[in-house]
Amino acid sequence: METPFPPFEPNGPDDSARGPRLREIPLRLVFPNLITILAICAGLTGIRLAFENRYELAVSMVLVAAFLDGIDGRVARLMKATSKFGAQMDSLADIVNFGVAPALVVYVFALDQARSLGWIAALIYAIAAGLRLARFNVMAERENKASWQSEYFVGVPAPAGAMLVLLPVYLGFLGLATDRTFAYVSSIYTVVIAFLLISRLPVWSGKSEGNRLRRDLVLPMMLGVVLYVALLMSYTWEVMVFTVAAYLISLPFGARKWRRKYGTLTIEEPGIGDDDIGRHI
């Protein structure tokens, strides 16, 4: 029987075994994490809607999840609310929203008719997205970053991969017959996107501080963005197909620009290879 009295401690109470004291947390530290949680909820809801055959809502929820997942980090930096906890939450949201959710939605919509081959393609994509995100996190933790990291991605980024892998769903919404042949072709396409994610293909990011826009092109560019959003709202799936095609066409141009500058076709830079993988497993 336990005694109600605390044990005798000759050297005083040992506070080292106690957890940290509860303290008040500023609301600005919580807000970015709430966005991340909403992104996870949207991605998981997209999976549920896909299994309920409500495909348009399912794809919309996955795209909303990708949008929320893309802005939570920026909101955290703007509010000076970055934290290790938030970084871990963001990584969890990334694998759900950019890997698992798109893979399951495209599987339920199209790849299911290819039976085991379709499921294998979905698995390959989901695992490739996880590997891509792990490599990104490893590179982000490096103290000395290469100068090209502000201008190029190593492989297609996971958010773009989620948009690309849903192409069979967009085409199905436009009336393309989703028969078994379509399922097999979609499975091959899904595997191709998976390999683009984990490849060392230099993908231009457009984030370099050296990129400048001529003053006379600012207003036309803003008008073009407004036009794109208006068309996206009115002709959603046609615009998404066009966006996917334009993105895929742009990949060789980014690689050619890298080759002219650095003389290689792929990014082979010490410090992001097998040694990093071995250290972080």
Break the fold down into its secondary structure elements and pairings.
Blueprint (H helix, E strand, L loop, with lengths): L26 H25 L3 H24 L5 H26 L6 H25 L11 E3 L3 H8 L1 H7 L6 H19 L3 E3 L13 H17 L1 H27 L11 H7 L1
Helix pairs in contact: 1-2, 1-3, 2-3, 3-4, 3-5, 4-7, 5-7, 6-9, 8-9
Structural description of this entry:
- There is one protein chain.
- By secondary structure, this protein is mainly alpha-helical.
- It is built from ten helices and two strands; from the N terminus they run H-H-H-H-E-H-H-H-E-H-H-H.
- It has a two-stranded antiparallel sheet.
- Helix 3 runs parallel beside helix 5, helix 4 runs parallel beside helix 7 and helix 8 crosses helix 9.
- The protein is globular, with a radius of gyration of 23 Å.
- The C terminus is likely disordered.
Quickly list its features.
281 residues; CDP-OH_P_trans; CDP-alcohol_PTase-I; mainly alpha; 10 helices; 2 strands; lipid metabolism; transferase; two-stranded antiparallel ribbon; transmembrane
Largest sheet: 2 strands, antiparallel
| Tally of separate helices | 10
| Strand residues, percent | under 5%
Average pLDDT figure: 80
For this entry, what is the oligomeric state of its chains?
single chain
What is the helix content?
55-70%
Class inferred from helices and paired strands: mainly alpha
Give the strand tally: 2
How big is the Rg? 23 Å
Give helix and strand order, one letter per element, not per position.
Answer: HHHHEHHHEHHH
Shape label: globular
Low-confidence stretches: 270-281
Order of strands, main sheet, comes to 1-2
The separation of the N and C termini measures: 45 Å
